[in-house]
Design a protein that fits this description.
Strand order of the largest sheet: 1-4
Number of helices: 5
Largest sheet: 2 strands, antiparallel
Order of helices and strands: HHHHHEEEE
Shape: elongated
Oligomer: single chain
Radius of gyration: 51 Å
Number of strands: 4
Distance between the termini: 120 Å
Structural class: mainly alpha
Helix content: 40-55%
């Protein structure tokens, strides 16, 4: 309200020269005081306008920050599917060497000669499967009983340390077992569905048709 009154006063004082009244009829020193009053009113209006602008800026609603975007759900890696390599291997060992028959048979009622005869068949058949599809050979090219040194650069997967193992390599020890490795993996593909919680055929029922 005060700003409006001051604006009207400044307007009136500024418009006085436009009135058709001779200058000699105005009081002495009127115009200097009139100009000073216009200057004061203009300054007052400027100050009030600045204060009002600051007040409006301070009371303006804060800018709304954009809502954080929800992170996309992380993709759950699929569980590894069960494959039939183990079933294929067991099937081949059973077919060539009667491996499953030998392990699942209760041999406590058999004498040593009978067990030895059955073991020979199993050994020959299973050895043929391993050589044909896996090409197995000893990991250590030497003999059991060899003394070797395992340095820091040796493949940890190639050696299993037993006994008194302390500190950092190199280690010196005696070969107790030469280990085994394979140069290929050429098992046939398993085409049937694998059910980890259900029944999976290793060897079918053999029926002689008569």
């Amino acid at each position: 309200m005060g700003t409006l009154i001051a604006a009207l006063g400044a307007f009136v004082l500024s418009a006085l020269p436009l009135l058709l009244i001779p200058a000699e009829r105005w009081p002495a020193n009127f115009w200097p005081y009139c100009q000073m009053a216009v200057l004061i009113l203009s300054s007052y209006i400027a100050v009030q306008s600045f204060v009002a602008l600051r007040a409006r800026k301070n009371t303006s609603p804060p800018a709304t920050e954009p809502a954080p975007q929800a992170e996309p759900p992380k993709a759950v890696p699929p569980e590894p599917s069960q494959t039939g390599e183990a079933l294929i291997l067991l099937s081949l060992l059973q077919e060539k060497g009667r491996f499953v028959d030998y392990l699942m048979e209760d041999i406590t009622a058999f004498n040593d000669a009978q067990v030895a005869a059955a073991s020979r068949v199993v050994h020959q058949g299973c050895s043929a499967v391993l050589n044909e599809f896996l090409a197995i050979s000893p990991t250590h090219a030497g003999k059991e009983g060899d003394r070797i040194t395992i340095d820091k650069s040796a493949d940890r997967n190639q050696y299993r340390l037993i006994g008194k193992v302390h500190g950092e390599p190199p280690y010196s020890g005696v070969v107790v077992h030469r280990g085994w490795k394979t140069r290929k993996l050429a098992l046939p593909r398993f085409t049937r569905r694998v059910d980890p919680t259900g029944e999976n055929i290793i060897a079918p029922v053999e029926v002689e048709v008569r």
